[in-house]
Amino acid sequence: MQKIIGVRFKQAGKIHLFDPGDDDIVAGDFVIVETSRGLECGSVVVGVRELPTADDLSEDVPLLRRIYRKATKADLVRVEENREKERQAFEICREKIAEHQLPMNLINVRYTFDVSKIIFYFTAEGRVDFRMLVRDLAYIFRTRIELRQVGVREQAKVLGGVGCCGRKLCCTTFLGDFAQVSIRMAKEQNLSLNPAKISGVCGRLLCCLKFESEYYHECYMKNNPVFEPHVGDRVILDEGEGRVVSVNVQRKIATVLIGGNKTVTSSWEDLLPADYDGAQKFSKPDEEIPNEDEEKEIEPPQETKPSTTKFSGAKSPRKKFVRGEDSAKGKDAADSADERNKMWINRPRKPRRPKGNFRS
Fold first, then answer.
1. What pLDDT is recorded for position 309?
2. How many CB atoms are located within 10 Å of the residue 18 CB?
3. CA distance 25 to 14
4. Is residue 315 part of a domain?
5. Is the residue at 289 inside a domain?
């Protein structure tokens, strides 16, 4: 049985596995280990565990590095001195960045335990030519210099802060590594898709969306079953309509051929069958569509009382047809009144006598 311990070099950092050897080490001790960057001093967060040997497993167990030794009081004092040197190196590097006018933002400086290398962490929008900066820093500190560009999430992890929940950031307190977060997790949890509400201080999606994502995903898939494609099926996706050429059942992804020369790999959740009708999904089952071929029942007209409109000779009456027994009589009365008015309006005018004496 192989023994292992978990060592962390910074708060909320990634846990690295090492072989403790024959030393009696418990969680909370400090050890000196050899890494790819050189000697480092880290704290033990996972006590001694035992792993099965390669004979008990079908695959080989990865070879672990053995710890250098347990840290002493003098080693811890040296670690504190390195922390003070890091603060001074931070100020010096900021001055040199301003002197060279480089578009970069320095966020952290890290010394190795044996001071064989100094690592400067910075953020920038694009690539930065910092060759002259490295030359100046190497001349000042007389050691190996490494400049490492990190993203906005790593920047928030180093600087820290308070989240929208009112507590310290998860990446600063306990998250050792960043998990992949997608907008689909927010949809499955029925959260508002407003970027201001589902984004953290780093401007990316909240890491806490991953915490309960598995439970919400199971509930969501029960109510919304996923279409399972097969090779040769015609499907629809965002890029268009195509044919499935390969399917990965374990990862639940499919490769779709679009247009004969373009292949797209997509998840099953983003695929729909080619004969899918979106109107069927939103149609109401209880709603009945009327058939035009069916005979409609026509209700008989209701009888109404005849109108008793009185006409005066001064004003032209409006034609009003009254349904019932006296409808024809009312129509004739209205027509006769119009004729009388037309006689006065359209009567021939008397010719005017011309002025002057036209007698011969």
1. 47
2. 22
3. 19
4. no
5. no
Residue at 168: amino acid letter: K
Measured in whole angstroms, how far is the alpha carbon of residue 77 from the centre of its chain? 47
Tens digits of per-residue pLDDT, 232-284?
888 888 778 889 999 998 888 899 998 878 888 888 877 878 876 543 333 33
pTM of the model: 0.57
Q: What is the dihedral of CA 103, 105, 108, 113, to 10 degrees?
A: 0
> Which of 45, 71, 97 lies at the terminal end of a domain, its last residue?
71
Domain membership of residue 240 (yes or no) is yes
Nearest Cα neighbor of 170 from 35, 162, 95, 96 is 162
Whether residues 131 and 176 fall in one domain: no
H helices of 57-105, in order, are 73-100
**Residue 89: which CATH number?**
3.30.300
CB 300 within 8 A of CB 306: no
In DSSP notation, 13-27 reads: ---EEEB-TTS---T
Tokens representing 207 are 């890491």
Looking at the 3D structure of the chain, how many domains does it have?
Answer: 4
**Residue 298 burial by Cβ neighbours in a 10 Å radius (0-12, 13-18, 19+):** exposed
Helix (H) or strand (E) holding 122: strand 117-123
- Burial label for 46, CB within 10 Å (0-12, 13-18, 19+), is middle
Distances (CA, A) of 180 to 10, 55, 125, 205, 257: 22, 35, 21, 10, 27
Instruction: Indicate if the pLDDT at residue 320 is higher than 60.
Output: no
**Residues with Cβ within 8 Å of residue 216, at least 6 apart in sequence:** 185, 188, 189
Residue 111, judged by CB atoms within 10 A of its CB (0-12, 13-18, 19+), counts as buried
Helix (H, G, I), strand (E, B) or coil at 347: coil
The single-letter DSSP state of residue 210 is G
Q: What angle do CA 142, 148, 149 make, to 5 degrees?
A: 145
On whether the CB atoms of residues 290 and 302 are closer than 8 A, the answer is: no
Q: How far apart are CA 15 and CA 85, in angstroms?
A: 25
Domain that holds residue 241: 234-273
Looking up tokens 């919304």 gives: 224
Same domain, 8 and 40: yes
The answer to whether residue 25 sits within a structural domain is: yes
